[in-house]
Design goal:
The protein has 163 residues and is mainly alpha-helical. Helix content is 71%, strand content 0%. It has a domain at 2-110. It is built from six helices and no strands. The mean pLDDT is 80.
Length: 163
Amino acid sequence: MKTICKDRRRQLDTSTSRNISAVAADIDKLLGLKTYEQLETLERQVKQKLNSNEAIDVDYWEDLLRNISVRKAKAKLRKVSQAIVSERLEAFRKKQEAEAAKVRKEMEAAMKDPQASDQGTEPKIPYDASLDPEPLLKLRPEDKNLESMEDKDFLKQLVCCHD
């Protein structure tokens, strides 16, 4: 977190941001979507380059090294954050499983003995054929395939046929 905060303050400093903006696009393109391990490898290579006696643009390589350390910090923070989210998600799943098992047991108990159910407030009504809708209100299977029409269209057809 300290590394990320220091980088953010450095970016907000107007005097250094002008120097960084010239090469920031190149560095962003170079670092891209590298993993933590790839960034570590690149960091070793950049340190070797800086320690060598070659003629190099030291400012560029130091800036690259600084950006690598910031990206590594962000990658590590992302891993920690993902681990926390995964643990919380797993705990939530276990809690849901426990609640589901409890409800399942209650439902099984209610199915075995309806009188022992906690929800015995409503009396169970036995099936009675006289409570069914009248058979004329039920659609026969062959009637379900018939074309349906609006009331207005039906009335027009009815009036036209009687004239």
